[in-house]
Amino acid sequence: MMPFFTVVIPVFNKASFIERTLNSVIHQSFKDFEIIIIDDGSTDESLNIINSFNDPRITIFSVENKGVSASRNHGISKANTNYIALLDADDFWEPNFLETIKLAISAYPDESIFTTALAHKFDNKVIASDYNFSVNSQFTVLNYFRNSLKHQLLTSSSMVFKTSIIEITGLFDTNLESGEDTDLWIRFGLHYDVVFINKILAYYNHNNNSLSKSNLDLNAKPKFDKYLSEEKENKDLKKLLDKNRFSLAILSKLHNNKSLFEFYKNSLAIENLNLKQRLLLQCPKQILQLFLKLKSLNGTKLYHKPL
């Protein structure tokens, strides 16, 4: 009899974190799962640490380094279950993450995507994600685009989806080195709503080696131009894409890439930005740098939302 969940964990040089991540899965209160680990050509002690775990639910595939998208896709292709849970190798779950997801699946058997609230763990503090919606019930069915305008409703460590939906949405785009998550979530959102669990059960760990914080190759960022026809018909999608275009326009200005700044700026509808965002878009680089420096005084590392 096949397990209920497949947990897919891509690993590349996460020796400092993988033990905690794996322990958070192994000690889940709901035990009926398999763990598929894709070691993406790690050169540190990650694989040795993984091999120290003696759990028959763990299967390890060692592959040549091709990036996180290829690793996740490989892991998904090896799944032997009807539900996929993604988890990054430096993030972790509360012990009742899978149990609560299972309850949500039982309550909403016709839905295909499930996610919990997320918190961000910094060196000395934990900060709950700031969503642009509020809910009172334990489970709520939400539109992905409409409810990702502050923080992403879906993240790669807080969500579970039916394996079968990949036949409709496709997998992660291996041509994207950054923003590949958002790209797939957009395709999810075009076809499915999301069951949101109103409880923090997953933690995104901020560390200095994270790709999302270190990758400054702006040409590797998504252009969001593959959804031009869809956004003409879907105002919620258009608004979400414009929020991301705003973030990338600001990032382009900070890194003196005038052509990309103009590309993102000209691709968005200014009415989809609030007054503060409109002003920031017009600010010179020096003012933006000052603003970011002031924001950093709260002791947390900066990251660009909603990417």
CATH class identity of the largest domain: Alpha Beta
Tally of discrete structural domains: 2
Computed CA radius of gyration, to the nearest angstrom: 19 Å
* Class by SSE composition: alpha/beta
What is the beta-strand fraction?
15-25%
Distance between the termini: 39 Å
**Major beta-sheet overview:** 10 strands, mixed
Shape: globular
What's the CATH topology name of the largest domain? Spore Coat Polysaccharide Biosynthesis Protein SpsA, Chain A
| Fourth-level CATH superfamily of the largest domain | Spore Coat Polysaccharide Biosynthesis Protein SpsA, Chain A
Descriptive report:
With 307 residues, the chain is of the alpha/beta class. It has two domains: 5-212, Spore Coat Polysaccharide Biosynthesis Protein SpsA, Chain A, CATH 3.90.550.10; 216-298, no CATH class. 36% of the residues lie in helices and 19% in strands. The chain has helices spanning 18-26, 46-51, 68-77, 97-107, 166-169, 180-191, 211-214, 228-233, 235-254, 258-267, 275-282, 285-295; strands spanning 5-11, 33-40, 58-63, 83-86, 92-93, 113-121, 126-128, 139-142, 159-162, 194-205. Strands 1, 2, 3, 4, 5, 6, 7, 8, 9 and 10 form a ten-stranded mixed β-sheet that branches. Strand 6 and strand 7 (126-128) form a beta hairpin. The radius of gyration is 19 Å and the shape is globular.
